[in-house]
Amino acid sequence: MALIPQTSSYVAGKWIDSGDAFAVENPADESRVTDVVSAPAAEFERAIVAARQSFDSGVWADLVPRERARILNVFLDAIVATRAELVDTIIAEAGLPRFFTEGVQVDGSITLGRETLDLYLALPEEDFNPVPVNQLVAGGAKLSVRRYEPVGVVSAITPYNAAIIMGIQKIIPALAAGNSVVLRPSPLTPISSLVFGAAAEAAGLPPGVLSVLIESGAAGAELMTTHPAVDLVSFTGSTAIGKAILAQAASTVKHVALELGGKSAQIYLPDAVDAAARGGAAVVAATAGQACVAATRMFVPADRKAEVVAAVSATYQHLKVGDPAVAGTMIGPVISAGQRERCERFVALAQEHGATVATGGRRPEGLERGYYFEPTVLDLPDNTNPAAQEEIFGPVLGIIGYTDVDEAVRMANDSIYGLSGQVYGADVAAATAVARRIRAGAVNVNANGGLNAYAPSGGYKQSGLGRERGPDGIRAFQEIKNLTVGSLG
């Protein structure tokens, strides 16, 4: 496997190598992928100050939108040029299967980036406020305009499970809108994100417009959320960390955009139960359940629950678990020993509260090294079970029976989370009516929303604040200014 060559941070247009080295672990076999250099806090400070200077100078923000988009397409071209090395790097550090890494994490991300640029160029920089003419005249004005301007300096903090997707999802709309960005990926999967620094260099982005810093701890990330020169923090990760970021950003009243945890529900109406096995497979395949949008609670008619448990279990037993670099592997490892232990702990907790393990629930035989966990089906007695309420972030699905659709909706909404959801039904109108009742930011009916640059996603409740992707995701990186225009005559 050929890795991308960068192993240190890219700050204000230059690669730095000051700091202590730390090893990145391959979760598939517990080997060392490579050593990378942890940027000290002083480099985070320098990156933030350079971002502030680059924004205030207008060297990037004052370019016309089409010129910024042109340069960002060159930026994406540079990432495409490293595709083979980038794929191998993601597989090595994140343990994601090759088919998913190639098709979604890399190719899908590039498509998302290019479509985001197209969408940005289609949005107006200014539009008219719908103020009645008589009110304008009475106020001595002739025009009321809503203007969209860049917010300024953006701190972007991305998770281990989708470093490139989330990086593109933050960097491209933020830079397209004219902001300067400081990116900090997860210490568990830092290598792949260095491709963004190389792409910035290749595209000729002005120094300070994009810096990419890696670290072994969290001191730099905390500086990114507290520094007075930062205008917006965009974070994807756990709800616990999101709450800490909100507190850290409060003293300087920053904009905060958060995509946090989830415990998403999939509801199968009585006329769509036969689709449950396929829907259940989608929860664990490719990501080993390490996706915030994973629909890990399955609600089915109670009188067919045993049938569904058997069908999903049979499907899980045929999903190939193993080395993510090998073609045909459907499920790789979870990211760490701690994450595997979390899966084990919640399976035990579920059983203590009346659940039955229908399949899985342990480490696979024959895979002595690597942080593997069998795809697991839990037959849950009700929605109060710990496995139905807590985000496990592993290949664990809980199946719960409902007596009628109203109960299914009530249980789906009985969660502190509200990130996404799914409804399946042969009667599309009926299924869509149920979807409208789900308290979540994105609900799919008989479909997988996927990486859609034109449709927003984001959370209700403790699943986050704001939206990513779509027009709302671009506007999240902009301030809204109202212009009221009159005359001296």
Automatic annotation (TrEMBL):
Keywords: Oxidoreductase. It is an enzyme of class 1 (oxidoreductase). InterPro entries: Ald_DH/histidinol_DH, Ald_DH_C, Ald_DH_CS_CYS, Ald_DH_CS_GLU, Ald_DH_N, Aldehyde_DH_dom. Residues 15-482 form the Aldehyde dehydrogenase domain. It catalyses: an aldehyde + NAD(+) + H2O = a carboxylate + NADH + 2 H(+). The active site is at 259. Its EC number is 1.2.1.3. Belongs to the aldehyde dehydrogenase family. PANTHER family: ALDEHYDE DEHYDROGENASE (PTHR42804), ALDEHYDE DEHYDROGENASE-RELATED (PTHR42804:SF1). This is aldehyde dehydrogenase (NAD(+)). The lineage of its organism: Bacteria, Bacillati, Actinomycetota, Actinomycetes, Frankiales.
